[in-house]
Design brief:
3 helices; about 70% helix; single chain; about 0% strand; mainly alpha; about 100 residues
C-alpha cells in the first residue's frame, strides 16, 4: 500500500468538501427556478393585460426587494456562523404576507 503524501491528503479533503458543498447547489438552483417563474408569469400576464406597468413596478420595488433582503439575511447568517454564531432566538426578516397588511 502506498503512503499518502501531504498533497494526496489535501486533494482527498478538497474532493470531500466539494461533494459536501454541492448539496447546497440545489437550494440556489431552486431559488433561481422560482425567480424564473416570476418572469414567466409576469410576462404572460403583462402580455394578456392582466397586470400593468404599475404592477411591474410593484414586483420590482417590493417583491424583488424582499427577495434581495432574504438573500442578504442568508449571507449575513453564514458570515455570522464563522464569527459570533447565530443564537436560536434570532430569526430572519418577517414580512406581511401581502402589501395590504403593512
Amino acid at each position: 500500500m502506498k503512503d499518502l503524501t501531504k498533497e494526496d491528503i489535501v486533494n482527498i479533503v478538497k474532493e470531500a468538501n466539494k461533494e459536501t458543498l454541492e448539496r447546497y447547489q440545489s437550494f440556489v438552483s431552486g431559488a433561481k427556478n422560482f425567480l424564473d417563474q416570476i418572469i414567466e408569469k409576469a410576462k404572460g400576464e403583462y402580455e394578456n393585460d392582466i397586470i400593468n406597468d404599475a404592477d411591474i413596478d410593484y414586483l420590482i420595488g417590493d417583491q424583488l426587494e424582499r427577495a434581495m433582503q432574504a438573500v442578504e439575511y442568508v449571507k449575513a447568517s453564514l458570515i455570522a456562523l464563522k464569527g459570533p454564531g447565530i443564537k436560536p432566538s434570532e430569526k430572519g426578516p418577517i414580512y406581511p404576507t401581502s402589501r395590504y397588511e403593512e
